[in-house]
Amino acid sequence: MNDKILEGTTTVGITCKDGVVFASERRASMGNLVAHKVAEKIFKINDHIVTTIAGSVGDAQSLMKVIDAEVSLYQMRNNDNMSVKAAASLTANILRSGPMYVQTLLGGIDEDKPSLYSLDPAGGMIKDKYISTGSGSIVAYGVLEDRYDENITTDEGIEIAIRAIKAAAERDTYSGNGYLVAKVDANGVEMLDNGKINEVLEKI
């Protein structure tokens, strides 16, 4: 049953001049049923890489565990962090070895250079400035296309990302039940608490 959860989802990733921002809603659905209202769709891999998931819970959890283990192993062997591009390539190779029903955003910052990748279930890997996945992505892209600029800060990116998720949740029945937001910058990964998210929502 769990493999069918998260078929409807909206996630967003945005590159900014000082980092990368991720946002998602929290609804996990099985057909017309809202199966869970507190689904975790954003994952910290290490202090400079974050991922999001859309798709099967079982496949997503398995993929996150493998990525986390491989990145940690690389760091122990080389006494250095794996680059964002290398982590994205690793994820693509894992997906190619056995297609999983999951779409992933992976991004972060290397020496003050932010980057963001989209990975499809068959291992396709595309780098872009901003990306949305899931059933609400059509609505989210409307906000991103209208408001994105390459010179925005992560604080500005957070507001845009939340706007995009909010718009998707209002029009996509498979998205909703709150927000998850994370940013990656030179100081590391920050998962925003509800207080900070609500402050942004009050401005929108």
UniProtKB/TrEMBL annotation:
Where does this protein chiefly localize? cytoplasm
- Keyword Protease on this protein? yes
Gene3D superfamilies in UniProt: Glutamine Phosphoribosylpyrophosphate, subunit 1, domain 1
Its UniProt entry gives the catalysed reaction(s) as: Cleavage of peptide bonds with very broad specificity
Say which enzyme class the record assigns: hydrolase
> Where does the chain cross the membrane?
none
Propeptide at 1-8
What the entry lists under InterPro entries is as follows: Ntn_hydrolases_N (IPR029055), Pept_T1A_Psome_bsu_arc (IPR019983), Pept_T1A_subB (IPR000243), Proteasome_bsu_CS (IPR016050), Proteasome_sua/b (IPR001353), Proteasome_suB-type (IPR023333)
The UniProt similarity line reads: Belongs to the peptidase T1B family.
Q: What does the record note on quaternary structure?
A: The 20S proteasome core is composed of 14 alpha and 14 beta subunits that assemble into four stacked heptameric rings, resulting in a barrel-shaped structure. The two inner rings, each composed of seven catalytic beta subunits, are sandwiched by two outer rings, each composed of seven alpha subunits. The catalytic chamber with the active sites is on the inside of the barrel. Has a gated structure, the ends of the cylinder being occluded by the N-termini of the alpha-subunits. Is capped at one or both ends by the proteasome regulatory ATPase, PAN.
**Under which name does UniProt file this protein?**
Proteasome subunit beta
Organism field: Methanobrevibacter oralis
